[in-house]
What we know:
Elements: E1 10-18, H1 20-36, E2 44-50, E3 53-57, E4 75-78, E5 85-87, E6 91-97, H2 100-103, H3 107-123, E7 138-140, E8 143-153, E9 156-164, E10 185-186, H4 189-193, H5 199-217
Parallel strand pairs: 1-2, 3-4, 8-10
Antiparallel strand pairs: 2-6, 3-5, 6-9, 7-8, 8-9
Helix pairs in contact: 3-5
Amino acid sequence: MDTEPANTICVEWLGRGLEYGETLRRQEELVADRAADPAHVPERLLLLEHAPVYTIGRTPDRSSLLDPGQLPHPLFTVGRGGQATYHGPGQLVGYPILDLNLRGRDLHRHLRAIEELVLLGLAEYGIVASRREGLTGAWVEDRKIASIGVGVRRWVSYHGFAVNVMRESLPPFQAITPCGIGGITMTALETEARVPVSVDAFAKTMTTIFRNHLDDVLPRTVSAE
Length: 225
């Protein structure tokens, strides 16, 4: 367990092959703890690699699942925004548990900050990624490399980002319309960087990015008590 001060983000590597329900319960516990005792419970970034799973936000439009009965992996309906996406081996998932009571109660601003941190991480590998107007995530030209979806409870954030690091993370996207965007091409960090990159290596990169830049892109507007 990380023992850094409560005003410093603690980063935890949870491991690989984690079941989605297990990590969702972990997020919910940390969100509740932070909301109940912000003076003593630090903000956190959970980093991990999921067992294969599809997720979709709470929306009546489930057309992005294509054929729900034929999905090759389990499906979870979750409390974030957005359409269907995939998590699995070769992909780094990050769940920032951030207190937006301190950082401004603005979900749009929070989304843009997470995007910016992912873009900074990709830039460390020479990848010029960017946003696309009206869409969420990180893109290399017209290819999507990272997905982002967040939720809040009592203005403490959960859910987060998923970056396709290795090529093995890409084939399962073919069973869905990723994020509900027709004709989308998914890409991976190692494809765009043209060098092998491990999930472990990118997790270390994102740890450094969050510790060095979180307060720059999403500064505290209220002091912690």
